[in-house]
């Protein structure tokens, strides 16, 4: 293992960057394809049917145990991938060809770029410090993820406009309106987390790795995940994440029932596949950010940080504390949490019916945004009361104001449109 580390350190930084970039593409693309298969299996499981389980190449049918892979639908994934790459790629004559071809490429760029600022695990060095596994460990990590991922909507707008067709155009317009409606709430929901992390007099940061580090401290509040400290912020972020990734019940940009297929109606073959790989990539990155902010990142359980697990492994055998083994362990924990979140995305898709478009807009502007603003004001006041030690009277006043504001937000239910 030491030889591998020395070989890696001896490589030129440019070569290291190229290898890291290729590794990202090599991981995201297969995971996007595997997610499409997983979605088909999950939907089949929820609907009481077997799902894809028939495909089996005749030249491997003799291999003992191959039927297990057949039942899992692995060969359907291979067949679908081959079909996507090699079938005829239609290019309608009425589209604006340059922008029509550019849109799927634009969809992939944010999906492959944002992963550079997301830590995927950590290891413990010889000094006992937890070092995050991240391609670009910058202090503005969260800002970089938000800034780049928001560019993904331009691909939907571009695809809808360049298709020169009314249904894709309406899908593109819906996508842009939905992004604006929910991005504000998502951004406001994470501010209380960093208000909590950036204590007065300390060094300010928006690093996702620092958010995990803050949830790994000793003590009751130190080891508590932010989903327990700030549950409203977590809910607002999660709902906004569903809307930002165009997943049911927020898939207004596609809306098969009223827009045929929305922005991708005119697309097929590889270009269509790129849109869906980008959608699954956004789901994975969004799930990773949610886990880093609210679910402890690579820590296995609340109040049990990775450093404590390393101490337990060291008591068993010093070999188990090697940085590569610890890095793989933390990566496994983190990926397991991300897969759990992906399952939640699929579970909701096949359980909750699609909202109407007016309900999506009202929920974003009339419910979620006031809730995000109120949540931010509550934690700003709570942190000030705590730091200034203002006493019980201020806490009581804050509780009364919070109850009144919550009632005001939820007093009026979503109204049906007049017929």
From TrEMBL:
Its main location: membrane. PROSITE patterns: COMPLEX1_ND1_2. GO terms for biological process: aerobic respiration. The chain crosses the membrane at residues 17-38, 59-78, 98-122, 134-159, 179-199, 220-243, 326-348, 368-386, 392-410. It catalyses: a quinone + NADH + 5 H(+)(in) = a quinol + NAD(+) + 4 H(+)(out). NDH-1 shuttles electrons from NADH, via FMN and iron-sulfur (Fe-S) centers, to quinones in the respiratory chain. The immediate electron acceptor for the enzyme in this species is believed to be ubiquinone. Couples the redox reaction to proton translocation (for every two electrons transferred, four hydrogen ions are translocated across the cytoplasmic membrane), and thus conserves the redox energy in a proton gradient. This subunit may bind ubiquinone. Belongs to the complex I subunit 1 family. This is NADH-quinone oxidoreductase subunit H. It comes from Oleiharenicola lentus.
